[in-house]
Amino acid sequence: MATQPKLEIPAIQSVNDFVVKFANVNGSGSASANSLFAKSILRMGIPASSRNIFPSNIQGLPTWYEVRVSKSGHLGRRGSVDLMVAMNPETWGEDLAEIEPGGYLFYDSTKPLPESKFRDDINVIGAPLTAICNREYTEARQRQLFKNIIYLGVLSALLDIDIAAIEKLIGEQFRGKDTLIRPNLHALHLGRDWALSALDCPIGLRVEPLDKVGDRIFITGNDAAALGCVYGGATVAAWYPITPSSSLAEAFSAHCHRLRRDPDSKKRRFAIIQAEDELAAIGIVIGAAWNGARAFTATSGPGISLMQEFIGLAYFAEIPAVIFDIQRGSPSTGMPTRTQQADILSCAYASHGDTKHILLFPEDPHEAFTFAADALDLADRLQTPIFVMLDLDIGMNDWLVEPLAWDARRRYDRGKVMTAEMLEAGVEFGRYLDVDGDGIPYRTYPGTHPTRGAFFTRGTSKDRYARYSEEGPDYVDNMQRLLHKFETAKRLVPRPIKRAAREETRFGVLYFGSTAPAMAEALEALEERGIHLDTMRIRAFPFHDDILDFIAAHDRVFVVEQNRDAQLRTLLISEGEIDPARLVPILHYDGTPITARFILKAIADMLSVVTLAPLKKAMP
Fold first, then answer.
1. What are the respective helix, strand and coil percentages of the chain, to the nearest 5?
2. How many C-alpha atoms does 423 have within 13 Å on its Cβ side?
3. Which CATH number fits domain 497-618: 3.30.70.20, 3.40.50.920, 3.30.1330.60, 1.20.120.160?
4. Among 55, 194, 485, 526, which residue's beta carbon has the most beta carbons within 10 A?
5. Omega of the bond prior to 244 within 30 degrees of 0, cis?
6. What is the pTM of this model?
7. What are the 10-residue block averages of pLDDT along the chain, 620 residues in total?
């Protein structure tokens, strides 16, 4: 063990409320042990959330895994770290700097380090992990893998984690591979037994059983969205691999193999196609939807760029399609394994010319599930592409959310589809004819009637009956109807959610997507400092009138988003004809999920109410 420097401030003491961060090397097998750590906290009934920050290469670069333990149920990133598990010498300096004063550093002390490598305001805990592995194992790969389980055992003692919970999780993780269970349990107890005999356990940070998890589940947004596609009736998925969206298509495949087979013949009732590129993927989706299937693709920003031509076709020819954009660091290749909300404008106006697309903004995996199913209904109802705007934080990280509700009585909304009986009865059919005044025409499926209801699908201009036309009035008539249909969508998309401040205020906040958990915590801290803000979470574009009314009711409105160029604010100004001075941007775009402390400081600085000194008092 390292010699403990004399602390200048008291060590942090906290039960069920702290942040642990693991600093590892990508490809070292640490992900499994780190996940077991987070899940063991949940098994004790304590709310927890995890964030995986990993490089875009296969092996060798730094990776981090952050676990927020919060008895209050705060599931967003807080900012800073109380216990750093430092297993990567390459990032030692930056990992050390991130620890709160009075916090804890846990490291492999097999090789002694000089006192200059440490800080004098933190608690240093060393364990000879490599020495234990070298003594116990002969194979290099075993030493590497079991080192992770050994440090999990040490942490179980340091934080007083229920060892039975970890043992049960190991049994579940290796179910079907029973020969792996005993060696992992052995490694777990090697670490725990060593810690109990050599260290003062537990430390100031520890956990105690609670009953605050209930029946909530731990799931990624991509997995939940994929299940939502099954629930919503999707039978066709076409995709091209791209981080961070690939796991959505892979999860859809797994769910379909389980849920979309004929119960008698076991034949597949789905089609999943890995296309040669993103343009082909969206083309397959459009073709399948034109034929009456419910179809979707999953991609990220670079894929959206490549899909532009076919997105414009689907908009102008009015063909349903659902596109999941799991946003990542941009532009160009950008940061493939970092999160952002930077595709708002490129999706809202995707393709050349005058287009406006419907965007849905889920806040977590639970809404990713419900919005996935809703998007398939909206695509059919409105006969247009629907974008579900996830991001890497929601898509690839496990979130603690309410159970996903599966209603077997759900009926799909296929929108305005003219049947053979209607055509036989002589109902007038014009593919682009607005008969109901909502901008949405009727369509037919191929083969609906042997002689009636056929039309030519084209990306060129046409009249109300799908006949080719370059006449200006026909073009204007069609474009105005598309705009009217977009107005109709306001009544169909998810409405924003408003929260009134405890006291009357002239200030408000708009936010969306994965910012939600950090925002909730920041608002509590702001109120503790006497800063009261009305808030509204935007869940869709086109913007509901409630959003414009909210802005009009406040002198200034902060718009919190995770991109450089204030894209949501830009969209609000453009679409709502709002004075830019009324909307104050709060922007976070370094690729990590936004934190409550960042929001608190940014808003407090803008209002010039608090300084950095009371900021630390406001946030735990």
1. 40, 20, 40
2. 19
3. 3.40.50.920
4. 526
5. yes
6. 0.94
7. 59 98 91 96 98 82 95 94 97 97 97 93 96 93 92 98 97 90 96 97 97 97 98 98 97 96 92 97 98 98 97 98 97 95 98 97 98 98 98 98 94 96 95 97 95 91 96 98 98 98 96 98 95 97 98 97 98 97 97 96 81 44
